[in-house]
Design brief:
Blueprint: E1 5-6, E2 9-12, E3 18-20, E4 23-24, E5 32-35, H1 42-55, E6 60-64, H2 81-84, H3 90-95, H4 100-116, H5 122-131, E7 132-137, E8 147-148, H6 151-154, H7 159-162, H8 164-181, H9 192-206, H10 213-221, E9 227-228, E10 231-232, H11 233-236, H12 239-254, H13 256-259, E11 265-266, H14 269-273, E12 280-286, H15 292-311, E13 321-326, H16 342-351, E14 357-363, H17 371-374, E15 379-382, H18 388-400, H19 410-418, E16 424-429, E17 436-440, H20 453-460, E18 493-496, E19 504-519, E20 524-535, E21 548-549, E22 564-565, H21 577-592, E23 595-600, E24 605-606, H22 613-662, H23 668-678, H24 680-732, E25 738-742, E26 749-760
Parallel strand pairs: 5-14, 5-15, 6-12, 6-13, 7-12, 8-11, 13-14, 18-26, 19-22
Antiparallel strand pairs: 1-4, 2-3, 2-17, 9-10, 15-16, 16-17, 19-20, 19-26, 20-21, 23-24, 23-25
Length: about 750
């Protein structure tokens, strides 16, 4: 059986030839890294790699942080406009002065033409759709398929018999998640509650029993052990602290919000990647809806489960499965930072290759990656990077990645990265010599962009249902009489959307968030003001994934007559409600806000806020010409003495030659005739001697003139070369314009005002 190959695009070889890139699938066993700024086509390349793996019947597990990867569901075999219509944003069409149907036709034509350019068509889309089993897991919400993150506690895992270390790591990660949800320290090595719960849970699991939260609550109330380490239990964790921990745990168990974390698919990576009905599995674990702390905890738990599954596999050199982590920024940072995701990622990078499992890690921010860890990667795909620092970081990483650069000069690589167009990537494969450039192919899936939770529900057919672990709560009834609007939190104003009598209004938050983007070295200080609105999550935080721009003019200060109001989340009734909301809004702007400025280092120019690139280009040209004019004057002045001296030498040589041309024998013609008559032989000898001297003088004068004219031409040429170099530098100045992407510090983001909006449901 021939080894599987992937064809994610075309390679441009050093001699300029473009050929299909047939990447042997087993090259990904040594892991891959995909880097590229926003707009470089990084996500498209990742999707193309996933599609190629699925076409080669390699199962894929995808970690989705931004909400882009569910686009894999958007495969439309007919590529007809009707398939795009449900996914076209009517508000965007209205702003663009077009219709949903017209935009759908445009998208369908664009995707059909894009695929045709790669020799692909509806048949290829249908083939991918038929051979793939897609699954969307959404921990903490039923937007997709919920996940029972505590399944490691519910029943003993087979890992306890085959890999005790992996089983203990998975248990530790689960308990850390629980403790952090309780507001306790979840550090496995320092937290006394964590140590006690881990001992109780491991004792139960080794005895073949479950260690559910209810069981652990019972163990806290009636401890099954008298000592922890060298200390008596009461000395290690006093009774009062155990009782407080039990109360907190009971509150968590009873919380309806927490129920969604305990129901759904089991944490079973082997089952996630197993074929279904002869189709290859692609399982997406989406955490785009979670906040930063929750993402780190959930993904650490997922990665620990992946690691445990990998260690239980037999060894192979073929690609058995692919794990793709899109936007790994913040989850694998350099030393000394150590988020809970770093340990399992490091272990997978070092160990998974022996079991045929490859990792592909992608990010647009290479500055926050542990390049010592990524030195394990054998395949690098690097798109355009905006800053010198990013490019230098990548060159440094490749230099340390088992000598991947080889004979390639680091400066050549940096220049290549600087000039890459979108959807093009420099490829360095440890299994192949040299560098080449990849043109990523058009994806079979429609790359629509990040999806909200409501869109995920529509995408997967999920419907919101009650997720309480006990008996379901009664269905909410439509109130028979109008209700009064709940009071907003202290210091908040309230505003209302227009709605007919009988309508139900839901609470949203509207806020003005101000961010100060600074770069002292560039002398940049840009202020961005964002007015946004978003619905509330059950825990009182804004659901920023469903946020949109807020226009205060669309709302009124008085409530419409005859409407009903949904209750506020309980968290908004607490004293820290405003701080909770502000933190979520600041975190969202910190993650999403990027400002691009253009710079020209040699000229010392930086674009102004919101200055179009065309205007900055004009400024660069003007300044380059101004400096060029001054440089031309200096160069002319520097060469003028040499040119003048050479010109004077030519003049002198020409006068000397003219005098030599006019010279005649002494005495004139009559004297010469007389001398010849008087003494013929002597006179003739003297005449010949004079004529020889005159001829020699003329030859010397001509030679000197030739040398003078050559020196003059050389002086002029030297001057012209210097002037030409100045002019070329001025003409090429715009090519040195660089785009710098600036982020914002959390400390430079503030919420200046907030209000409670009442928006019609539906």
């Amino acid at each position: 059986m021939a080894p599987a190959t992937l064809t994610p695009g075309r390679l441009t070889l050093p001699e300029g030839t473009a050929v299909p890139w047939h990447l042997p699938a087993h090259h990904l066993v040594t892991h891959g890294v995909v880097l590229g700024m926003t707009g470089s086509g990084k996500t498209g390349l990742c999707v193309a790699l996933v599609e190629e793996a699925l076409r080669a019947r390699v199962p894929v597990l995808l970690v989705d942080v931004k909400g882009d990867l569910p686009n894999l569901f958007l495969t439309f075999p007919t590529l007809g406009a009707e398939a795009f219509v449900p996914w076209v944003d009517p508000d965007a069409c209205a702003r663009a002065d077009t219709t949903v149907e017209a935009e759908a036709r445009r998208l369908a034509e664009r995707w059909r033409a894009g695929l045709a350019g790669w020799g692909l068509g509806p048949g290829d889309v249908e083939d991918l759709r038929q051979r793939t089993h897609l699954r969307l897991l959404t921990p903490g919400t039923r937007a997709g398929e919920p996940v029972n993150l505590l399944s490691a506690l519910d029943a003993p895992s087979a890992l306890w018999d085959v890999d005790e270390e992996a089983a203990r790591d998975a248990l530790s990660a689960t308990l850390s998640l629980v403790l952090r949800m309780l507001g306790h320290d979840g550090d496995a090595s320092r937290s006394r509650p964590h140590v006690l719960l881990a001992l109780c849970a491991e004792r139960r699991l080794r005895e073949g029993r479950g260690a559910s939260l209810e069981a652990l609550l019972e163990d806290l109330q009636r401890p099954p052990l008298a000592r922890v380490g060298a200390l008596a239990l009461d000395d290690f964790l006093p009774t009062s602290e155990r009782e407080a921990l039990a109360q907190d745990l009971n509150t968590l168990i009873a919380s309806p919000t927490f129920a969604s974390w305990r129901q759904g698919a089991a944490m079973d990576v082997g089952q996630w990647l197993a074929p279904v009905g002869g189709r290859t599995s692609a399982t997406i674990v989406s955490v785009a809806h979670l906040d930063d702390a929750e993402r780190a905890l959930v993904l650490s738990l997922v990665l620990e489960q992946v690691l445990g599954w990998v260690r239980g596999l037999p060894g192979t050199s073929e690609l058995r499965a692919l794990v793709l982590f899109d936007e790994v920024f913040g989850f694998l940072p350099p030393h000394p930072a150590s988020p809970p995701t770093k340990r399992p990622l490091l272990a997978l990078l070092k160990q998974a290759r022996a079991f045929g499992v490859g990792l592909v890690l992608a990010t647009q921010n290479p500055m926050d990656l542990d390049y010592k860890a990524l030195s394990n990667a054998g395949l690098w795909l690097v798109g355009r990077l905006p800053t010198d620092a990013d490019r230098e970081r990548v060159v440094e990483g490749l230099s340390g990645a088992s000598g991947l650069l080889g004979a390639v000069h680091p400066g050549d690589l940096a220049d290549a990265l600087k000039a890459l167009p979108p959807r093009h990537f420099v490829v360095k494969d440890a299994h192949a010599p040299g560098l080449s450039v990849l043109d990523a192919r058009w994806t079979l899936s429609w790359l629509r962009g990040p999806m909200t939770r409501q869109e995920l529900r529509r995408l997967t057919g999920a419907t919101p249902v009650n997720t309480a672990p006990t008996s379901p709560a009664p269905r909410a009834l439509v109130p028979s009489a109008p209700s009064a609007a709940p009071l907003p939190p202290a210091g908040w104003s309230a505003a209302y959307a227009s709605a007919p009598p009988g309508a139900t209004l839901a609470p949203w938050v509207a806020a003005t968030v101000v961010a100060h983007v600074r770069d002292a070295k560039l002398g940049v200080h840009i202020t961005r003001t964002v007015r946004a609105m978003a619905p509330f999550l059950p825990d009182g935080r804004p659901d920023t994934a469903r946020g949109r721009v807020h226009d205060p003019r669309a709302y009124q200060s008085e409530a419409p007559a005859g409407v009903h109001f949904e209750p506020l989340p309980d968290a908004l009734l607490r004293r820290n409600a405003t701080a909770l909301v502000d933190k979520a809004l600041r975190d969202e702007l910190y993650r999403s806000l990027q400002v691009t400025v253009h710079t020209h280092r040699e000229l010392g120019l930086v674009s102004s806020p919101d200055e179009p690139i065309e205007a900055f280009h004009g400024r660069v040209v003007t300044e380059a010409r101004r400096r060029a004019q001054a440089a031309l004057e200096r160069a002319s002045a520097e060469h003028a003495p040499k040119v003048q001296a050479a010109a004077e030498r030519v003049s002198l040589a020409r006068r000397a030659l003219a005098e030599a041309e006019r010279a005649a024998p002494t005495g004139g013609a009559l004297a010469t005739v007389a001398a010849v008559l008087k003494s013929p032989s002597r006179a003739l000898h003297r005449l010949e001697s004079q004529q020889d001297k005159i001829a020699t003088k003329r030859e010397r004068a001509r030679a000197e003139l030739a040398r003078a004219e050559t020196a003059h031409q050389q002086a002029l040429a030297s001057r012209d070369v210097a002037l030409g170099a100045v002019q070329r530098d001025a003409d090429e100045a715009p090519r040195a314009i660089e785009a710098r992407v600036l982020g914002v510090k959390k400390s430079d983001v503030e919420v200046t005002e907030r209000s409670l909006l009442w928006v019609p449901v539906g």
